[in-house]
Amino acid sequence: TLPYCICLSLRLHDAPTALTVYCCRALDRCVQGCTMWMKPEEILLANALWVTEQSNGFFTLQRRKGHGTKGLSSVLVGTLDSVFDSKPAPYRILHRTPLSEVSYVVATSLSREEIFQNWAWIEQNLLETLKSFDSEDEATEFVCCKIRSLVAQREVSLPDVDQDNAQFRVNASRFATIFNLPRQEKLVNYYSCSFWKGRLPQQGWLYLSMQHLAFHSFLFGQTTRVLLRWTDITTLERSNNFLFPETIMVASRQKKHYFSMFTNIVETFALMEQLANLAMRQLISEETFEADQQLARKLSCNAPKKLPLLKRDLDARAQSETYRTTFRLPLDERLDGSLECCLWTPYNKQAVRGKLYLSPNYICFESRVKNLVCLVIPLRLLQVTEKVDSHNSLPNALLLTTRNKVNFLFAQIEGRDFLIEKISELLAKIPQPKEIPCPEDDSTSLASSSSSASWEPEASLASRFELPRSPEAQEAETQKEKQWEEHFAEYGRGLCTYRTSKAQELVLTGIPDSLRGELWMLYSGAIHELETHPGYYRKAVSESMGKRNATSEEIERDLHRSLPEHPAFQSPQGINALRRLLNAYAWRNPAIGYCQAMNIVASVLLLYASEEEAFWLLVALCERLLPDYYNTKVVGALIDQGVLEDLARDHIPELYTKLDSLGVLSMISLSWFLTIFLSVIPFESAVNIVDCFFYDGAKVVFQVALAVLEANQERLLSCKDDGEAMMVLCGYLENVHNPQAAICSRSTFQPTAGSKETVDISTLVYDSYSKYGFLTSNMIEKLRLKHRLSVVQGLQDANVKNVLRSLSLDPRISALLTQEELSDLVALIREQQLSQHSWGTGPPGVAPPNVDTGAPYGEQLFHLDMDQFLSFLSAMGPWSRGEHPRRLGVRLFRLADTDCDGWVSMAPWSRGEHPRRLGVRLFRLADTDCDGWVSMADFCRILAMSSRGDMDDRLRLLYGAHLAVCQPGDVEDAQRDSADDSPEQEGAEVATEAEEYFSSLEEGSSADQVLSSPAAEGSSAPSLQQQQQRMELLDAVLQRNRDSESFFGSASLSSSYGSGGDPSRYSSKSLDMTLPDMNQEQFVQMWQTVYNLFVGHPDEQDFYHALACTGTELLQMGEMNHEAKTKPDDPTGEHSGGDGTTDRETPRDSGATAATVSSDMWDRHWHISFQQFRACLHKDEHLASFFDTKTPVSSALEGLRSSRIQQRASSTPPLTGAIKV
After folding, report:
1. Residue spans with biased composition (Low complexity) (predicted)?
2. pTM for the model
3. For a disulfide at 572, which of 377, 449, 452, 1079, Cβ 3.0-4.6 Å?
């Protein structure tokens, strides 16, 4: 059976058509069963460390020595494989002819079954064909070509399979097996190194994956494993000393780990830094990593050596980030490739050697000599691309012409045709910018001064509110404008200007006010987003105007504090423009919203740029130039504070020691960095620093800060306390002036009293560049990485401490759970949330709610969704036995999820065959606002009461969980659980009858439960009244007093949760009386849950008998309550109890949060109280003993931690930490 491609390779051109068709079909069939074929590789020593299991004249099936055994050979071979990185698959098939000394590996496998399937296929399809060849060379050629075609056909038929080589896939599988990690954990690369265990190095392999750093060593039967999550690493350092040469130190919260003897320590450490940095960014922004699936298919003329796909992806991301930073490009721009070439510079008639960079929207060039020339050409402006072969001195030239008829000549391009092809391909994909439609604005602004719905963006406010200048200042301003005009004439103006060191010299002297907005837009890169998003700002303003929320109110408070000395912000025009700008950005980026200090920066931007330009400058500042600065935790500013400390330690060590002892650096850095010195230096002087900042990036703020500290070194060294040091620095900065600036309305510049001298801003900027201009963006970014680890980990630790402190202050929690148990519980929950976030296995499209920052930390930071809630419930709860324990869990979840957001805070009662049912009910009980989240505090209260509380606490949870409504998915889960019931479990007659009865009731009850659920009615959240009712129910169940008057005495609670409740019966003085009455449908569901708790219990029959008696008694009580209530007043039996209306006449409250009577099969006036339910269960000895049993939380936590480690390979991502064997 020879495919046509094989026929060609063997020069069998006369193969008939029928044979060709038949062979191609045969190839298709065989490819489907071949999973481990590999391109043939030559080997000389076929039997070294291998055992032959089967062989024939052309093929040999071998097994690795020691595989599957525990003898000496297994130890020796395992040690050699670990040290020399052979790590072969344990089974392989070789092709070898009788007279040849060379063998070819044609198939490998990790399992015996798969390799024997391949062996059977070879014997069936190849052996007879090979016997027909006259020479061994032809047979070998046939086999090699056959196997290659199988591999190629398999890659074509499986385009989504990773393009990593076979050896890497084997190692990735081994990595997942050794550390029991799930399939979501992707290996990036692995390196040979030594791990220092005590004083002895253990040679092995360092595995770097997306979420973990792992080490494995197998030497002479001894196994060493280390597994660390990137989010647990606090320090990464590379050092070289006598004891540990070329060593990488990795510090976690527990201890330090040392790795050395790397073959390529530079590459290894760079990848470790990148992965740790990525993990920290994910913690800050809560974004997941998505690999570039198109990377393996991208066309490249100078592709690097074969690397693992994820490693190539990460390298490409690092290069793209450097590319964007260098040329100030948008965040979504990704580098496509680069090549060496020359650029012809017309201003000096020279060819400058450098590198050309190509991305989907830009062509950029940077000279090899730093700052010599830089060029950015947007592809959207490109009109003509043509070859130029007429220049003998400029071979392989390429001419680019823009729409403005500006020509750019590149020469000495290797692979010019390939470059033209790529440019043509990218040009075809560039979309034309379209005006973003703006919805008609019928809303008004928050302030009365902006009551009109119509508005127009303001021009630069400095041009409208001009300030007077002295004659000398006006002359200097005119001279600077003339210099810039000459510069434009020589180097070009606009996006495609040649950026040279001459431009930097002009920027250092200060940009004239008339050109400041234009050049800020150019050098910051904001001009690109402005031109590619026409109409975006108008839409953002229209969407944000008139919206009242916490962010807009905070903006309103700060509007009149923004540059109040300038007349522009003493007028409605300036205030309204600032209001629109800040609200529009808050609408664009709700993750940041508004942060104090943004108003100061934005007001200065509005002075020199138009309103729309100022918006895009603010976007560039917050999202690219100063990332993570303006969030709620100012993480970026805290990181740069550490960077400043390191720079001060290295360059002004004596002063650093003094300031560190006084704690001054931490006091000054935030105010300096957040506003780019605008809040500490008079703004007319500080704008010169902003000029340099937009031109050179964030390194400017460090240069100026170091220059300021060095200029005041003598006075700072003589300071005795931090107050005196702050006075020195504040006095110096206030005396910085700009003699060429316009005179602000406050007055002419006057030195601060007590100051010795004034400082010219030009002198300060010049000193910062002359002394610290050697700082580069790469140096700053490396220092940021170092401190990003410590800052983010410090914030995480502080959050956990605040959560524990908040939980320990709750009397119900602290009385039942110890501090150690709370600490272990919070750690486990946090680890599981990190795992789900890292592997992307959390709720799809769902994020924790944005809780009010004024709420306690336990309410803000840690929330559980239903799956997390139920997983801990099933592992730790006493009421987890039975047939359908999920039901009560769902109800408890709904009880705790007071805002119905689908998230809560951990509880028990969920072992057994269906552990989710009870847990789901508990979740619904706690999810009062129906958003699918429950707070950590509520979860801990439920866990404490269910595991350590008394019998009344547990009965209150059980009772309240069945008053809370379940969502449609909860009902479906319950019905699915019922469908999966095994008849073998229905041992007792009473259990069988109860199961049949309850299953029939669910069919009639589910529909109306859905009707009373907000989610079923299409609403995203319950109304405020419904939330209040759910919160009252949860507070009554948890016996929690919110210090609100008559909080538990609301009549709405009784009328909403029971069909026959009497509001007069509920009083805030008796907490037991606050629980509403339960109707018949709710009671039947609750009793079904109770029955399920005892399925499989050793005393199952005794409990069923007790439940039958108790249930009968409660049913009779409900009927008596009905009769006692309806006979005196309403013989017809239609009185609902207490409100003078009938159930038939009263329309159903569609937003009610409890299940209501849903079918004619229910007695609409039957009801029981919690006191009756509690009394009946207390009477029975068996039931009282069961519900009074305490759960050892500490042992449950330890068991949960152990089970998570053992079950990492399961479908649910495990909890992982540091593991050493």
Report:
1. 444-455, 1012-1023
2. 0.73
3. 449
Nearest to 508 by CA among 781, 729, 770, 709: 770
Distances in whole angstroms, Cα of residue 613 to Cα of each of 531, 541, 685: 10, 14, 22
Assign 888 a pLDDT band (cuts: 50, 70, 90).
Answer: low
- Cβ atoms within 10 A of the Cβ of 782, count? 14
Please tell me which of 245-249, 429-433, 480-484, 916-920 the model is most confident about, judged by mean pLDDT: 480-484
CATH of span 461-625: 1.10.8.270
Joined tokens for residue 121: 């296929």
For the chain, percent of residues with pLDDT exceeding 70 = 71
Q: Are 1056 and 1082 in contact, with CB atoms under 8 Å apart?
A: no
Calculate mean pLDDT across residues 679-707.
Answer: 94
How far is it, in rounded angstroms, from Cα 73 to Cα 51? 11
Please report which confidence band the pLDDT of residue 1189 belongs to, taking 50, 70 and 90 as the band edges. Answer: confident
Q: Are 1094 and 1189 within 8 A, CB to CB?
A: no
31: number of Cβ within 10 Å = 19
| DSSP-derived 3-state class of residue 243 | coil
- The number of residues making up the chain comes to 1221
User: Which residue has better confidence, 1160 or 906?
Assistant: 1160
Nearest alpha carbon to residue 895 among 881, 909, 875 = 909
978 exposure class (CB count in 10 Å sphere: 0-12, 13-18, 19+) = buried
Give the lowest-confidence range in 22-31, 679-688, 799-808.
22-31
Rounded Cα–Cα distance for residues 294 and 663 (Å): 50
Whether the CB-CB separation of 1077 and 1168 falls below 8 Å is answered with yes
Instruction: Answer yes or no: is pLDDT of 343 > 70.
Output: yes
Helix 699-711 with 653-662: angle, nearest 10 deg: 90
* Peptide bond preceding 779 in cis form (omega within 30 of 0): no
The domain 635-744+757-791: what is its CATH number?
A: 1.10.472.80
Question: Mean pLDDT across the chain, nearest whole number?
Answer: 76
Which residue from 585, 536, 535, 538 is spatially nearest to 441, judged by alpha carbons?
Answer: 538
Give the CATH class of 336-429: mainly beta
Of the candidates 626, 596, 602, the one whose C-alpha atom is nearest the C-alpha of residue 614 is: 602
CATH number of 166-290: 2.30.29.30
- Residue 842 burial (CB count, 10 A): 20
**Are the C-beta atoms of residues 888 and 909 closer than 8 Å to each other?**
yes
CA distances from 620 to 105, 359, 697, 808, 871 (A): 55, 19, 11, 43, 43
pLDDT in tens, 536-553: 999 999 999 888 888 899
Residue 441: partners with Cβ closer than 8 Å, 6 or more residues away: 453, 454, 455, 541, 542, 545
- Please say whether the beta carbons of 447 and 579 come within 8 A: yes
C-alpha–C-alpha distance, residues 896 and 629, integer Å: 35
Q: Is the pLDDT of residue 980 over 80?
A: no
C-alpha separations of 263 from 314, 348, 1046, 1137, 1210 in Å: 20, 46, 73, 82, 35
Residue type at 837?
H
Residue 186 has pLDDT above 90, yes or no: no
Residue 58: pLDDT above 70?
Answer: yes
d(CA 234, CA 252) in angstroms, rounded, equals 5
Residues 6 or more apart whose Cβ sits within 8 Å of residue 194: 201, 202, 203, 204, 259, 260, 261
Listed in sequence order, the DSSP H helices in 897-935 are 917-926
What are the E-state strand segments in 87-156? 91-95, 103-109
In Å, how far from its chain's centre is CA 913? 34
In this prediction, residue 1161 carries a pLDDT of: 66
Bridge-based pairing state of the strands 1219-1220 and 37-43: unpaired
